Amino acid sequence: MDRRSDCPVACSLDVLGDKWSLLIIRDMGYYGKSTFKDFEKSEEGIATNILSNRLKKMMDHGIIHKEQSESNKLVYHYSLTKKGVDLAAPIIGLSRWAVKYIPEVNDIFNIK
Amino acid sequence: MDRRSDCPVACSLDVLGDKWSLLIIRDMGYYGKSTFKDFEKSEEGIATNILSNRLKKMMDHGIIHKEQSESNKLVYHYSLTKKGVDLAAPIIGLSRWAVKYIPEVNDIFNIK
DNA sequence: CGGGATCCGTCTTGATACTG
DNA sequence: CAGTATCAAGACGGATCCCG
């Protein structure tokens, strides 16, 4: 569903408004993960078809970039584009909020 | 689905990781909307069952609060709790990102 | 009329098996 | 390793109905 709104919040949520996209960004930006298997192994347990779908969607939107490994042609590395790197701010915002208000979370990013 | 992760990003996305929750927060915080009908009339067009579900969910999580109107007993006003108000930061983060990277959006919040 | 609840068809997810 | 295929279950969207 695309809402075709011109609101910046609605537009960003059209791309990122689901349970997985921002987690994949987190994995790439904070944990340094880059391969399909890496993302698949994250503790939250994304299904491979959903992972595949989200990677494709974020590539279409220029948030991430895919390239073949030079050492092993069977492996692909995903990385953040500048557009993807700049999602750090909203992600950190969410993280700060959770640390402040959700008791169970660990402040694993040690954000000031 | 609850992932039972202790990551602050994952935990906040368990509550807010969908296309509508943050838009309702936006409507309350930025547009000053407060009634069911107000939210329903937003340009993105949320269905009433979904709206009802999201309001309930965010009330359960203490993000919003509901009270009966004093002037009209048929009307209920939803408002942000402190926990909800503090979602402004991540929402502004998303908004800034969209303004920077998505050409079609209007910078309706005029965020510096 | 405002605030939902209910029903129903469709689209999306999630779990797992399977393939190049 | 990096996905695709399959299929059941659930979420969503739209319309309608109900209730005070």
Beta-strand content estimate of chain A: 5-15%
Question: What profile does the largest beta sheet of chain A have?
Answer: 2 strands, antiparallel
Model regions low in confidence, pLDDT < 50 over at least 5 residues of chain A: none
Provide the spatial order of strands within the biggest beta sheet of chain A. Answer: 1-2
End-to-end distance of chain A: 36 Å
Assembly form of the protein: homodimer
The outline of chain A comes out as globular
> How many helix segments of chain A?
6
Total strands of chain A: 2
Mean pLDDT of chain A: 92
Biggest interface, chains and residues, is:
A-B, 47 and 47 residues
Helix content of chain A: 40-55%
Radius of gyration of chain A: 15 Å
**How do the SSEs of chain A run, as a string of H and E?**
HHHHEEHH
What class do helices, strands and sheet pairing of chain A give? mainly alpha
List its traits.
112 residues, 6 helices, DNA-binding, homodimer, two-stranded antiparallel sheet, globular, 2 strands, mainly alpha
Task: Provide a descriptive summary of the structure in words.
Two copies of one chain form a homodimer. Chain A has 112 residues and is mainly α. Chain A is 48% helix and 9% strand. Chain A has six helices and two strands; from the N terminus they run ααααββαα. A two-stranded antiparallel sheet of chain A has the order 1-2. The longest helix of chain A has 14 residues, at 88-101. In chain A, 37% of the residues are buried. The mean pLDDT of chain A is 92. At the A-B interface, α1, α2 and α6 of A face α1, α2 and α6 of B. The structure holds a DNA duplex (20 and 20 nucleotides).
